[in-house]
Amino acid sequence: MALLHAAPADVARRSDDDLNPDARIIPDGVVPKPAAVLVPLVPRAAGLSMLLTQRTAHLSRHAGQVAFPGGRIDAGDASPVAAALRETEEETGIARDFVEPLGYLDTYLTGTSYRVIPVVGLLRPGFTVTPHEGEVADVFEVPLSFLMDPQHHERHSREWQGRERFYYAMPYEGRYIWGATAGMIRNLYALVYGRNA
Q1: How many Å apart are CA 179 and CA 127, to the nearest integer?
Q2: How large is the average pLDDT for residues 19-33?
Q3: How far apart are alpha carbons 83 and 119 in whole angstroms?
Q4: What is the rounded CA–CA span in Å between residue 123 and residue 48?
Q5: Is the pLDDT of residue 196 over 60?
Q6: Does residue 188 contact residue 102 with C-beta atoms inside 8 Å?
Q7: DSSP assignment letter at 72
Q8: Cβ contact 81:125 at 8 Å
């Protein structure tokens, strides 16, 4: 993972608009809210896997979606890493002592005006998962080999305000990994394999 960034970028290099130069949803001039997510990699006997969460169906935003654990960076957070570890502990019950931060992906700007700093971390086996009942319906793992196979980086589209918008999707065993989460996974692929994404 030596190709990861050693420090988070101030400017977002990736966004929900990457595949949509003619159908942008991120407005100009909006000051995005700072956020951080953990991109947890778990060493298993069969190889590395990536831990993800599925949000509960009753949430007002992003209900039922697959996401990395994370959220807003609070004033009391010492760094994006501290925010990502705090949010991970709150959402999944995984103690921060099990996480070894490795580096950063490109900063990512979402259509909901969040400037997300993805923190890649090695998650040592032996952790206990206790999902936050109000936010997280499930915590699950996907083999990293599946997510790093470009054949699984599908381009899907939906109509938005009369225009077709494209996004990455990586369906896996009934889970629909898409949008910003898939975009960040695609960025990990690009950094590790030196490919444009």
Answers
A1: 28
A2: 83
A3: 10
A4: 10
A5: yes
A6: no
A7: E
A8: no
Cα 117 from chain centroid (whole Å): 9
Those residues with Cβ within 8 angstroms of residue 147's Cβ, 6 or more apart along the chain or in another chain: 50, 170, 172, 177, 185, 188, 189
Q: How far is CA 36 from CA 91, 128, 173, in A?
A: 13, 22, 27
Residue 74 exposed, middle or buried by CB count within 10 Å (0-12, 13-18, 19+): exposed
CA atoms of 131 and 116, how far apart (whole Å):
22
Euclidean distance between CA atoms 162 and 160, whole angstroms = 5
Mean pLDDT of the chain: 90
- Rounded to the nearest angstrom, the gap between the alpha carbon of residue 141 and the centroid of all alpha carbons in its chain is 13
**73 vs 141: CA distance, rounded Å:** 25
Query: Cα separation of 189 and 148, whole Å?
Result: 6
Q: Which domains occur in the chain, in start order?
A: 14-19+28-144 (3.90.79.10)
pLDDT at 172: 97
pLDDT tens-digit readout, 135-159: 899 999 999 999 999 999 999 998 8
Euclidean distance between CA atoms 135 and 142, whole angstroms: 20
What's the CA gap between 136 and 7, in Å, rounded? 29
167 pLDDT exceeds 50? Answer: yes
Count Cα atoms within 13 angstroms, Cβ side, for 197.
Answer: 27
Q: Which two tokens stand for residue 160?
A: 């938005």
